[in-house]
Amino acid sequence: MRNMDIRVENGRRVTEKWDDVFEAMAAEPRRQLIASLHDVPPDESVSLPESAVNPNVPVNSDQLRQELYHWHLPLLADQGFVDWDPDSLIASRGPNFDDVGTVFDVVHSTADQLPDSLVVGCQRLEREREKETGD
After folding, report:
1. Among the residues of the chain, which ranges form H helices?
2. Are 2 and 20 in contact, with CB atoms under 8 Å apart?
């Protein structure tokens, strides 16, 4: 394979990986689940739907359970970000969790640099900003 072909193939691969990460983080229940899994040791699981709920936003648990089962969890599992058991409705880190976990870390470690419109109202980012600025 020529050097240019390798560069093109690598470019496509990394573009697809970034698309997968941003798709995974594009919905609040998925972000909350990633946050919940991030907060527990790598070998532990979390229960659902509780671990996919934003504490600031009221939610219909039955509707969320259906959305998780039919949409959010299959999407995250297809990318290898989570493993989940449909019978007990628990989730754990998948083999590719670090792809989303690292992006999660970077966003939260730079909370003081994010615009207020992305921080105010998110308890986790507000806490991170307070830690970083000493407020």
Report:
1. 3-24, 28-39, 61-67, 73-78, 97-109, 116-119, 123-133
2. no
Q: How far apart are CA 132 and CA 110, in angstroms?
A: 8
The tokens of 104 are what?
Answer: 């999660």
Q: What is the pLDDT of residues 27-84, one digit of tens each?
A: 999 999 999 999 999 999 999 999 999 887 888 889 999 999 999 999 999 999 999 9
Tell me the pTM. 0.85
Q: Where are the domains of the chain?
A: 3-133
Tokens, residue 113: 């640099």
SS3 (DSSP) at 84: strand
Report how far residue 66's alpha carbon sits from residue 7's, in angstroms, rounded to the nearest whole number. 42
Judge whether 35 and 104 are in contact, CB under 8 Å.
Answer: yes
CATH code for the domain defined by 3-133: 1.10.10.10
Please tell me whether residue 70 adopts helix, strand or coil conformation.
helix
d(CA 73, CA 86): 9
Q: Are 46 and 32 in contact (CB under 8 A)?
A: no
The conformational region for residue 78 under phi > 0 = left, psi -120 to 50 = alpha, else beta, is alpha
